[in-house]
Amino acid sequence: MSKRDYYEVLGLQRGASAEEIKKAYRAKAKELHPDRNADKPDAEAQFKEANEAHEVLKDAEKKAAYDRFGHAAFEGGMGGGQRPGGPGGMGGNGDFASAFSDVFDDLFGDFMGGRQGGRQRAARGADLRYNLRVTLEDAYNGLQKTIKVPTSVQCDECNGSGAEGGAEPTTCPTCSGLGKVRATQGFFTVERTCPTCSGLGQIIKNPCNVCSGAGRVQKERALSVNIPAGVETGTRIRLAGEGEAGMRGGPPGDLYIFIEVEPHGIFERDGAELHCRVPVSMTVAALGGDIEVPTIDGGRSRVKIPSGSQSGRQMRLRSKGMPALRGGATGDMFIELAVETPVNLTSKQKELLREFESLAEDNNPESSSFFRSVKSFWDSMKG
């Protein structure tokens, strides 16, 4: 059976450039590889054909000879797979490993790292998280706090290199510094992490006796942290470079401090606003008067209670709330009245209250309105 024209095999016109030939071959290799076409028995033969065409056309001298003489240029041993440099040298014996390695990165580049090799001679240290509880007063004022963080720090004995005396690591002999090795299994060329250097590309002949070659040791560090005014639960503070030290001199990670503001016994926070529930006596609520309420800054504010105030009534104290974390504004504080019913009354007090009740006519507008509505409801039910 006569061979097809190499340009036709790759879907090209004569005179195609080297870049066009390379691009067309890779597309064909992806399309025709037998492992992607298990249901097409002729895919293997077509893959061999495309590979043979590429071997000729990618070489400038062979391409010139083919353009002039066609397949006859390689008769006499070059086309049948006998000569190592010939076009059939890779396809004639059915060995796809070297051909597939050219398109390996295109097929699996994103999945296995492609041509980058995965070498990580100096690995970055891990980020750390520290949970910090502060009081509401601390969140209002801000504070400078010293925290102790158990972490990995650079080994002073080897200056982070992992080698005794601070010597430089040597190139791994197994992977030649690439961090990965390739193994051919049938049609596949599989890349895996180098077992000798664990992907670092380097080995240490004489590990440091302090850090055992890691380049870092465990230690508790004391750090001074600035907590700005206005923080609230969930606020995250990043300290760059204060995380774990990197492996073998790699850059350190970051430390993230997560703030939790403790509940307060008097104030309840809602963003920049503060709420304070203040009990008042029945007499003050009825007659009116002045009361003193605490503020988060440790001060006091006098609040005038209007006569006839009911439970749940709110009054605003401007700029007595929490400072905003960004922007410099300060929230407000809201006072909520809770009218308190007296308990443990004496006989005299009970007598006076009964007398007051007998004299009360229209002093309870809310209850009067409610019971009028109830009476109307019952009357409608009877009708």
Automatic annotation (TrEMBL):
CXXCXGXG motif repeats lie at residues 155-162, 172-179, 194-201, 208-215. Residues 142-220 form the CR-type domain. SUPFAM superfamilies: Chaperone J-domain (SSF46565), DnaJ/Hsp40 cysteine-rich domain (SSF57938), HSP40/DnaJ peptide-binding domain (SSF49493). GO terms for cellular component: cytoplasm. GO terms for molecular function: ATP binding; heat shock protein binding; unfolded protein binding; zinc ion binding. A zinc finger (CR-type) spans 142-220. InterPro entries: DnaJ (IPR012724), DnaJ_C (IPR002939), DnaJ_domain (IPR001623), DnaJ_domain_CS (IPR018253), HSP40/DnaJ_pept-bd (IPR008971), HSP_DnaJ_Cys-rich_dom (IPR001305), HSP_DnaJ_Cys-rich_dom_sf (IPR036410), J_dom_sf (IPR036869). The keyword Zinc applies. The J domain is necessary and sufficient to stimulate DnaK ATPase activity. Zinc center 1 plays an important role in the autonomous, DnaK-independent chaperone activity of DnaJ. Zinc center 2 is essential for interaction with DnaK and for DnaJ activity. This is Chaperone protein DnaJ. The gene is dnaJ.
